[in-house]
Design a protein that fits this description.
four-stranded mixed sheet; Glutaredoxin; 4 strands; 84 residues; alpha+beta; single chain; 4 helices
């Protein structure tokens, strides 16, 4: 089973949408809220390379944000990643 980290903020509609897809696919993920935590936000930037939320990392590989997650799903590439 894949290890999934998703960096989020509480007021972010894209975070909600990304988590909704992961929930729909019935996969476990580790949500890391970065609201007001500049050190955690910096760690997210270093690990994922992105400055906006959500930032999603699957099996140590940064995949980007919500649109990237949905694009992987639409292309049929997300489920194989989740099975690793």
């Amino acid at each position: 089973m894949a290890t999934i980290d998703i960096y989020t903020k509480g007021y972010c509609p894209f975070c909600v949408r990304a988590k909704h897809l992961l929930d729909k696919l019935d996969v476990d993920y580790n949500e890391i809220p970065i609201d007001g935590d500049s050190e955690l936000r910096q760690k997210m930037i270093e690990l994922a390379g992105g400055h906006t939320v959500p930032q999603i990392i699957i099996n140590g590989q940064p995949i980007g944000g919500c649109d990237d997650l949905y694009a992987l799903h639409a292309a049929g590439d997300l489920e194989p990643m989740l099975e690793q």
